[in-house]
Amino acid sequence: MKRNRVEEDVYILAIESSCDETAAAVVKNGREVLSNVIYSQIDLHTLYGGVVPEIASRQHIEKINQVIEKALSEANMGLEEMTAIAVTYGPGLVGALLVGVAEAKAIAYAAKKPLVGVHHIEGHVSANFIEHPDLEPPFVCLIVSGGHTHLVVVKDYGEFEILGRTRDDAAGEAFDKVARAVGLGYPGGPKIDKVAKNGNPHAVEFPRAKVEGAPYDFSFSGLKSAVLNYINHAHMTGEEIHVPDLAASFQNAVVEALVSRSVLAAKELGYSKLAIAGGVACNSALREGMKQACEKEGIQFYYPSPIYCTDNAVMIGTAAYYEYINGSRHGWDLNAVPNLKLGER
Ligand code: KG4
Ligand code: ZN
Questions:
Q1: In the prediction, which pLDDT does 51 show?
Q2: CB-neighbour burial class of residue 229 (10 A; exposed 0-12, middle 13-18, buried 19+)
Q3: What does the alpha-carbon distance between residue 151 and residue 144 come to, in Å, rounded to a whole number?
Q4: So what's the pLDDT on residue 2?
Q5: What residue spans of the chain are helical by DSSP H?
Q6: Which residues pair with 36 in a beta bridge?
Q7: Mean pLDDT across the stretch 224-244?
Q8: How far is the CA of 344 from the centre of ligand 2 (A)?
Q9: pLDDT score of 35 more than 70
């Protein structure tokens, strides 16, 4: 990809509001974090066992100004010093996205700054650049979040080839549903991760689904049903469920599916670098499983710190930097696109 020469430092004020985190950050030249402010609504949604879209939008409206002001003040910079304003415009909850998009447009218009709309998943992938100055495309990346499970080749900054995706539930969704079924509550991923540490991952052999003719695709609904059936059966027969064993066995099945396909893709397609991204990339068993498999195959493995795996605005600022230097600009007609496809602009 042809890149424009950038003579001066680029400061981006980035905004993220696609789900239940209201976040803003200031990022210098794509990889230097000057501030990272996240207001998480999780405690509020926990009361309802999942994200309530209407509550999310209202909370974003309440918090967004404070979060942006804090991001600028922690960076010790003023709005006038920003080079551009970036915002996630999809995919995500439409009402939640709209709050960030409207805010970014208003700020960019008032401050006479260019506006850069960012794809949320491109943001998750870009989280890997923040702490790894040596990482450059091309590489294989597994994106696993609450709403997405994609295996892609990052061909260049902002340029993706999708190798595989989930045919049904996203990996994080499976974690959340299984956690709810065993009474661990929301959000399920971190809770399963924690209790699984005291469990035996081979206690229950759950099915490993393969998608016929699509070696890089995933399917988690069969596994989720198998876990629910296991729980129902135990309830009916009065058997006690050992939650740590169940959590560890379920987690092991998910991790095996994610690791085997990602490593196969890197090997078959000849890539020497593999990265993971998204909320589920926090999972300790996934990180360990990937690390071991990559070491065995001589693949360099990259993963962001947990704070950059779950939703944040630094990753949006990093993605926006590469979009910006490649000439991407959005107009005042930028809208929230809840089902924005990866690679679409
Ligand atoms: O990327 P993210 O913050 O939001 C989306 O874009 O979806 O991902 C949230 C998802 C939730 O499903 C949550 O349960 C999962 O990431 N998650 C985890 C862990 N931490 C968060 N899943 C497994 N293990 C974890 N440690
Ligand atoms: Zn996300």
A1: 86
A2: exposed
A3: 9
A4: 45
A5: 42-46, 53-75, 94-111, 120-130, 171-181, 188-196, 221-237, 243-269, 284-297, 306-309, 314-325
A6: 25
A7: 95
A8: 17
A9: yes
Q: Which of 334, 325, 331, 309 has its CA nearest to residue 141?
A: 309
How far is residue 12's CA from residue 197's CA, in Å, rounded to a whole number?
A: 39
pLDDT in tens, 89-144: 999 999 999 999 999 999 999 999 999 999 999 999 999 999 999 999 999 999 99
112 and 131 Cβ atoms separated by less than 8 Å: no
Is 202 in contact with 245 (CB distance < 8 Å)?
A: no
- Three-state SS at 51: coil
Sign of CA dihedral 273, 136, 318, 305: positive
Non-local (6+) Cβ contacts of 64 within 8 A are: 15, 17, 22, 24, 99, 100, 103
Distance 234 CA to ligand 2 centre (A): 34
Centre of ligand 1 from the C-alpha of residue 310, in Å? 6
Show the ligand 1 pocket: residues with CB < 6 angstroms: 19, 145-147, 172, 175-176, 187-190, 193, 278-280, 282-283, 310-311
Nearest-atom number in ligand 1 for the CA of 170 is 12
Select from 24, 44, 12, 7 the least CA-distant residue to 312.
Answer: 24
Quick check: 175 pLDDT over 60?
yes
Q: Ligand 1 pocket test: pick from 124, 290, 310 the residue with the most ligand atoms within 8 Å of its Cβ.
A: 310
In the reported structure, the alpha carbon of residue 85 is separated from the centroid of ligand 2 by a whole-number distance in angstroms of 19
Question: What pLDDT is recorded for position 6?
Answer: 59
Averaged pLDDT, 183-205:
95
